[in-house]
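Reopening closed ticket. The problem is back. First fold of the pair:
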Amino acid sequence: MTGPTVIVRKSEGVLEIARDDGGTERFPVSVGSNPDLADKLEPGDCRTPEGDFQIVSIEDSSDWEHEGRRSYGRYFLRLACPPWDGIGIHGTDEPELLGRPASRGCIRMSDEGLSRLVELTAPGTVVRIVP
């Protein structure tokens, strides 16, 4: 087993999982809210970095808070994407924004999509983020 291929297509607002059995699953996502959808250039620019990054950990984020709200969903898949810290794939408390740029740089997914991603991936899985 080689593991799935995970591709985030920023301009389409989708995350694709190409499974080992040849099947493909697609989920709507939100990426960085900067309207230019360009590659991340500096901290705080609300852009999602582009390139190939590994999942380094899958963390329970069910009780994490951001600005007083539990906004991360059940899981946070932390990505190694130097020089940027804190970039990952996580749930959202704003599912109505999926498919549109809405995050500060992370990739947001529905709880169902995120659970499926956790089932199919592990630390070491490569996530390719493309324009």
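Second fold of the pair, where the issue appears:
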Amino acid sequence: MVTITCLITPDFLLADQRSFPSFEQYSVTSKFHGKPAQARPSTKRAKLFRTVIINGAKKGPNFAGHFTIVFWGCGTACITLAIVDAANGEVYDTPFRYTSMFPPFPVSEDIDRNSEGYGEFEFHLESRLLILGGCLEEDENQCGVHYFEWKDNALRLITVKPPTPFKRKQQ
């Protein structure tokens, strides 16, 4: 007689065992040199934030070799961003309107709000990888650390690391 045992493990327990993308895996071979082109917001969403995008793009590339991630606040622990091509000024929207870096539910004062999965936001000039933690558009079903690749002038979601469960503060 053969016995088959099936063990079901929640995703958040497996998250620490999986490997997640690194900046080196998505490295770029060339970088933009020179004065960045003036941003040309043309999408409906980009036109709403025209001034902040144009001013942010003047700082020059900070992402994927020749792009500039421009970001601005949209409330407490909330950011919105756009991506500008420094070579030609083209402005690209993200697949989400904004991200909330705090959970979309009340958290009591005795909870450590710095738990992993909220507040991560990292990108590099030498890489096409964008790491963004939080909840996309405050949707509790879209919370965690999101790993995006910049490919074909768009952010493509690679994977999501679920947020670490909150811990009680040490008293």
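Update: turned out to be a display glitch only; the data is intact. Confidence is low (pLDDT under 50) at residues 1-15. The chain has one domain: 26-161. Please close again.
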